Amino acid sequence: MLLVMLRQTPNLLKDIELIKENELSIFLFTILMELKFLIVLDDICTNDDWLKFVRPFADAANGSRVTITTRDSKVASEVDPWSHPLNLMQLTEEDTWALFLNKAFPENSSENNLNNVKAEILSLCRGLPMAIVLLGGLLSTVKLSE
To answer: Radius of gyration over alpha carbons of the chain, in Å?
Structure first.
């Protein structure tokens, strides 16, 4: 992830893939201190995951911000105990199915040939938009008979 972030900054390093993780983190920190940034880290699952990324974002005195999304309110409160996390509701089954069909069959979102697996798809997605879009996008690349 550090490499992905560094590739999106104006850095001049060659062979950046060969640099150790700790050095990459320090380098990203020095770059970010010169920039004003907004970084969104999606689906941070544990506090340990956050701690892997916290060092480069240590100083927000220049107005920069880091926003995280997580399904675990404990992670959100550990990352920033002074914040007020926004709890998003899961999608209803109807909204889940509509979004899934829209992603899986963009040209014909009223596809009904999946009714035999509808309950399984709904249980896999659990009303989570990211899971719905991922599964729908995956199924959009295969033929329905497959």
So the answer is: 20
Burial of 136 (0-12, 13-18, 19+ CB in 10 A): buried
What's the average model confidence in pLDDT over 97-114? 77
Q: How many CB atoms lie within 10 A of CB 2?
A: 19
At 95 the pLDDT is: 92
Handedness of CA 102, 107, 110, 111 (dihedral sign): negative
Give me the residue label for tokens 């959009």.
140
Residue pointed to by tokens 């941070």: 44
Question: Could you tell me the two tokens for 84?
Answer: 């007020």
CB 32 within 8 A of CB 66: no
Q: What is the mean pLDDT of the chain?
A: 82
pTM for the full model? Answer: 0.61
Residues 135 and 105: beta-carbon distance below 8 Å = no
Q: Is 40 exposed, middle or buried (0-12, 13-18, 19+ CB in 10 A)?
A: exposed
Mean pLDDT to the nearest integer, 48-71? 80
More confident residue, 110 or 98: 98
